[in-house]
Amino acid sequence: MDLLKDYLFTLIVFLIPIMYSIQPLLLPKISTVKTSNSKDILRRKKIVLYRQIKELEMEYDIGNLDKEDFINRRSELKTEVSEIITELKKK
Prior knowledge:
mainly alpha
């Protein structure tokens, strides 16, 4: 009976925590949940980009940015916004 208790103790103390820590490696990967409404995501991205443009303009007005940096970053943000707007029009 003591031998059975020893094995049970060993199982509980050592084997179960090891199995618990290895378990994620053995399970299949969980697929990410795809959102059904990608239009909402695009709208949110558009709003975020508009805010970034506004902040960029404020930084330029304060004097934190050079004119070249401001023009380059602003044109990049505007390009992203225009791509999102065209995607929204398609849907």
